[in-house]
Amino acid sequence: MSPLDRSLAIGPLGLSVGQLLLMLSIVVALIVGSWLGRRRKINVGDSVFNAVLLGVIGARLFFIVQYGGSYDTFWSWLDIRDRGFEPLAGVVVALVYLVWRLWRQPRERRPLGIAVISGALTWSLTAGALALMVSQGASIPPTPLTTLEHDDVTLPAVLSEADRPMVVNLWASWCPPCRREMPVFEQAQQERDDVMFVFVNQGENLSTVNAFLQQESLTLDNVYLDRNNALGHDVGAMAMPTTLYYNADGTLVDTHFGELSRATLDRSLELFNL
C-alpha cells in the first residue's frame, strides 16, 4: 500500500495519511497567507479557502460526469462519503481560480502566491519524505486467516486458486460505513464473476459475524476472520473500511479507504481493464 493510502484511527475518526497531509498543507497556506496579508493589510485567507472549496467541487463534479450512471439518485451525487473525486480536475479548477484572482487583484499577488507555494511545498516535501521512509508493500500478504467453517487460509493461496483479480474488503459489523457499503459489494459479487471479492472481518468472532450476515440478509462468499487484526496491520490499514484491489499476480493496483459507492467501486475495477 502506498504510504499516502495508509490509514490512521483517531478515536472514532479514520483518516488516510494523504488526507492528513492535505489538511496540513492547507493550514500552512492559510497561516502563511494570513501572516503576509496582515503585513500588507490584505485578507488572502478567503482566496485560499475559495480555491480549496472550488477544487473540491470541481473534483466531485468531474467524477460525477464520468460515473453518474453508477449512482441511483441525484441525492447520492451529494453524498461525498464515498470519496468519489478526480484530484487532477480539482487541482486544475483551483489553479484557474487562483490565476483569475491574481489577475483581478494585483495587491494579493505576492502574499497569495507565496501562500500557495508554501502549501504546495509542504505537500511535496512531506509526501516525498514519507514515500522514501515507508516501504510500498505492494504484494498481497500471506496473513493467516480463518474461514467461517474453521479452515485456515491465506489470501495468496486463495488468489492462486482463483487466478483472477481480487478485491479485499476489511470490515467489522460495528463500523457504520462498513455496514452501508456491504449491499454494494453483494450486488457486485453477484454480477462480476471475473473478479473475486473477499471480505476479511477485523477482530470479531464467528458468532458475531454470522449474526450480522443473517440480520442484514447478506449473501456473501469468501468471508474470512482475522481475529487479531493482523491483515490490517500488514497492509497499513488501521481504520475501516478499507478496500484493496489486487491483480491476478497479487500486486496491489488501487486502494480505497473509507466507505465506497458503486461509482467508486466501478472506477477502481477499471484498473483491471474489465
Describe this structure in words.
Strand 6, helix 8 (206-215) and strand 7 (223-226) form a beta-alpha-beta unit. The protein starts with 6 loop residues before the first strand and ends in a 5-residue tail after the last helix. The longest helix is centred in the middle third of the chain and has 25 residues, at 109-133. The chain has 10 helices and 9 strands. The strands form 2 sheets. The protein has a 7-stranded mixed beta sheet with strand order 4-3-7-6-5-8-9, with helices on both faces. Strands 1-2 form a two-stranded antiparallel sheet. It has 2 domains: 3-133, no CATH class; 145-272, 3-Layer(aba) Sandwich (Glutaredoxin). The chain has 274 residues and is of the alpha+beta class. Helix 1 (17-39) runs antiparallel to helix 2 (45-67), helix 1 packs antiparallel against helix 5 (109-133) and helix 2 packs antiparallel against helix 4 (87-104).
